[in-house]
Each structure stands twice: as structure tokens, then as C-alpha cells.
Amino acid sequence: MSKTPRSEQPAPPLPEPLGTPVADSHTHLDMQQPEVAESVRAAAEVGVRTLIQVGCDVERSRWSARTAAEWPDVWAAVALHPNEAPRLHGSAGAGGPAGSPAELDAALAEIEKLAALPQVLAVGETGLDYFRTGEEGVAAQQYSFREHIAMAKRLDRALVIHDRDAHDDVVRILREEGAPARTVFHCFSGDAALAEVCASHGWFMSFAGNVTFKNAQGLREALAAAPPELVLVETDAPFLTPSPYRGRPNAPYLVPVTLRAMAETKGTTAETLAAHVAANTARAFGY
User: Fold this and answer.
1) Residue 15, exposed/middle/buried by CB under 10 A (0-12, 13-18, 19+)?
2) 71 in helix, strand or coil?
3) Tell me: the pLDDT tens digits for 87-138?
4) What CATH number is associated with residue 101?
5) How many angstroms separate the Cα of 81 from the Cα of each of 54, 191, 192?
6) Is residue 175 part of a domain?
């Protein structure tokens, strides 16, 4: 028997509310089933009072900026996802119709216009993804990443990084270009050694529901090594639903499930970690 599609499975129940309000530092409301109003309401009910809505291409970034303008509890991040860059550039191995170098530059220019809006606090998610893009797309990804770094610095925005199977190159390019003052590794996927590198540079590390998975011991070791003042929490919803709800729809209201598991890994209380996370997220994104 085939598995029930994620979208058809029942949503997990609301967890016990957090006593200290926190933020979901990375979510994709445009990819979730509930209306924005319901997502914001459910999140607030459990103590998740701020949502960072992340766009991954020009159209989704426009949607993110519009939504953030309409909802006081929602802020936006805008960018071209690493896997979008080769497609726009015309590089092979990215999937979808091929574009041209000029198309990539035009899209980057549009992202910069959006990033300058007051409700947009970050440039991201950008970075490198060597899992889905072949060798032919690496140059386009690295070019796009460097352009996003420069953009974030010009506009004094946080930089939100997507790093998949590309740790060494992500760190190298950040060092070569000079990372923005506020840099966030979204859905942190490295080990304790990478966590120590991030800590040495003052880069924030945002942990998602996959830190609760049984096979994620290396990720928990990275969390244990991360200084409390650099730790954030996110859903990356509708993806990476935390255990015990893995495989069901994710949403911002499930942040408390992940945060409580993170607190256990850190050997602290949920309220103590929530206080750190709340202060860290405000500092990282500047709201």
C-alpha cells in the first residue's frame, strides 16, 4: 500500500504553548495549505509570535514582500534559491527550461529592489546546493551567492544561507567576500566542527525539525557545540516536520516541538532556550 501523501495527512495537534514568545526564523507560508491568517493565528496561540517568510524566486519573493506588508507579525526574506540560479543562467543540470546569463542578472536586480523594502529584513535563502545541481551549475550558483552577499551588505540586511553538501565552499566564499554582519545558516546541516567555525565568525545557526530525527545524532552534536547566543529555531515549513509527526504537514505552530527537543540536547529548559532564541532572532534580523 502506498503512503498517504503529506498534504492529505492530518495536521499535528497544537503543542503546549511556550511561556516566552519566539520566532519561526524560516518558513514558506506560500507553500502551506492553511491561509496566512490561520497560520499566524495558530502560531501565536502557542507562543510563536513572529514569522520570517522566505521567498525562493522572484515571484515567491514578491509574494513574501506583499504578505509581510499586510501582516504585522510577518517579515520577509527575498532571494533566488541556489537551484534557481543555474536555471536562470542557462546552465545544464538544474532542471527546468534554460535561461541566459542576462536573465539571472535581471532576476538579481529585481530581488535587490524587493530587498530594499522596509518589511524585508533579509536576503535569502541563497548559498550553495550541490545535492540537486550538477557540476555544470556550480559556477552559476557561486556567482549568484556572491551577488547576494554583496546585496545584503549594500542594504544592511541579514544574509540567510542554504547550504547543502557544500560546507567548504560556502565558508570559503563567505570568507573571500566578507560575510555580512548578520549571517544565518538556515536549517543548519553541518557537524560540530562547522558549528565551531560558525561560532568563531559570529554566524547564527538555525535548527529545524530534522534535529529531532533518530538518524540526526551529528546534527544534535552540532547543536550541543553551538553557543546559546547564536542559536535560532525554524520550521522550514511545510518541510522537515519534527518527530513524532514526521511525514505530516509542518507549520510555524510546531516550533515548540523542535525547541523543546533542542533544549533537551542543550541540557537546559525550554524557557531558558526560548529566551535566547527570542533575543537572537531579533538581533539576527534586526526587528
Assistant:
1) buried
2) coil
3) 998 764 545 555 678 899 999 999 999 999 999 999 999 999 999 888 889 9
4) 3.20.20.140
5) 10, 23, 25
6) yes
